[in-house]
Structures are given as structure tokens and as C-alpha cells.
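Quick one:
INPUT:
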């Protein structure tokens, strides 16, 4: 198989599988939204489009950021800690973020499109590994896309996933610890570690770094109206 690691693209090269990573914080938010019972997640590239969608569906919840900050009129910022404790069961979440969501919407031209943070990158990698073996006879082309254009948080997770998919590691705990260390020392993590910066909670960073055993991966579909993240059970 061929695995390409790409950072922050507008249009990735042709592939069978695209995996888009946003560790801090979009797809960590998505993961915890599903853990907390959300029904579905719609991806929207523009905040005005998201607000217009809520005008037609008042029960929809909006989550996202511009420049890392919560958008006026949105129910939530881009906070995994906040979404993990909110009353969101059986509701629809609309996400708009600067990197993860936008890159995903530009990366739909593949048979399989997945999104992940570090939190469930392990399960996602094993699912892709099995998919490649069963469906492509190990000849698939995979793009692993670090959505931040120059951040080591997403890049380190992309390299972690490549090692997992190819079985190119000696000890999984060491590999995970090394990846987590790179994430916590990335530029994107700095503001969460600054006690004077009260707009960014260290609890969010902890959520982004905490590996969770899960029974699902997050797959992208288009239902004719919207691009959505759907929860796909690993054994389904």
C-alpha cells in the first residue's frame, strides 16, 4: 500500500482512503459528542451558513470557532470538555472549524473518508488496516491529512497512524507516549498551558491527549443535502 502524509491541503491527490486529522480540537470534539450521545454531526464550512441552518432547525446545536474562539450565536465553542458534559443526546450538531472541517470538505474525493483526533486514532488505524487487507488486497492508496497546515500536533498524529497501519513500531506504549509528547509541545498546545490565557482551558488539552477505547470510528458521508460525520461501529 501507499501512504501519503500531507499537511493542510485544499485538494489532496487521488486516493482510495482519506483520513483527516484535527487533534486540537475539532475531531476530538466530534468524538466526545458521539460518546455523549449526539445523533449526527453536520459539517459546514461557513459560520453564516451554520446560523442559517439553525434558523430553519431551531433544535440544531452549533459548535465551532474562528481563530480558536467561540463564534457569536453558536451554542458551543470548539471545546471537547464542554461537549462531553453538555445535554446533547439524540440531537444534531453542526460543526464549523478553521482547519479540520474545511480540510475535510475539500477531501471528499475518495471511496472512504474518515476523521479522527489522537483520542481514537488507534481504533481508526486498525479499522483502516483491516479495510485495506479485506477490500484492496493491501494495494490501497491512503492520504493521511494533518489538517493544521504547519502544526506538529496533527503531523505527529498522522505519523503515529502511518506507523500503526504499516505495523512499523516496536512498542505501542512508547509510540503513543512519544506522539503525546509531541502534541503537548506543539505550538497549538501552548495557549492551553498558559494559566493567564483563560480563553483556552487545559481541560480541553487533556481531552485531546487522553486515549479512549471506543467501539466506533468516524466516517464521512454525504446524504444528498449535507456532509456528515457518522458513527460507524468497528465490528459492523
Amino acid at each position: 500500500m501507499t501512504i501519503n502524509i500531507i499537511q493542510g491541503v485544499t485538494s489532496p491527490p487521488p486516493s482510495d482512503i482519506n483520513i483527516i486529522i484535527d487533534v486540537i480540537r475539532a475531531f476530538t470534539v466530534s468524538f466526545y459528542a458521539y460518546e455523549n450521545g449526539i445523533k449526527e454531526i453536520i459539517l459546514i464550512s461557513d459560520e453564516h451558513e451554520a446560523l442559517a441552518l439553525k434558523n430553519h432547525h431551531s433544535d440544531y446545536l452549533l459548535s465551532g470557532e474562528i481563530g480558536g474562539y467561540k463564534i457569536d450565536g453558536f451554542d458551543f465553542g470548539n471545546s471537547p470538555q464542554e461537549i462531553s458534559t453538555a445535554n446533547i443526546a439524540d440531537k444534531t450538531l453542526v460543526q464549523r472549524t478553521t482547519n479540520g472541517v474545511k480540510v475535510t470538505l475539500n477531501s471528499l474525493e475518495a471511496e472512504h473518508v474518515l476523521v479522527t483526533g489522537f483520542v481514537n486514532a488507534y481504533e481508526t488505524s486498525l479499522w483502516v488496516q483491516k479495510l485495506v487487507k479485506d477490500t484492496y488486497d493491501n494495494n490501497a492508496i491512503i492520504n493521511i491529512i494533518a489538517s493544521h497546515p504547519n502544526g506538529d500536533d496533527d503531523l505527529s498524529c498522522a505519523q503515529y497512524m502511518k506507523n500503526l497501519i504499516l505495523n512499523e513500531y516496536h512498542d505501542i506504549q512508547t509510540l503513543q507516549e512519544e506522539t503525546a509528547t509531541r502534541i503537548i509541545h506543539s505550538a497549538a498546545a501552548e495557549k492551553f498551558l498558559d494559566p493567564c490565557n483563560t480563553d483556552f482551558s487545559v481541560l480541553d488539552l487533556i481531552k485531546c491527549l487522553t486515549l479512549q477505547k471506543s467501539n466506533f470510528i468516524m466516517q464521512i458521508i454525504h446524504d444528498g443535502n449535507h456532509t456528515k460525520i457518522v458513527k460507524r461501529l468497528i465490528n459492523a
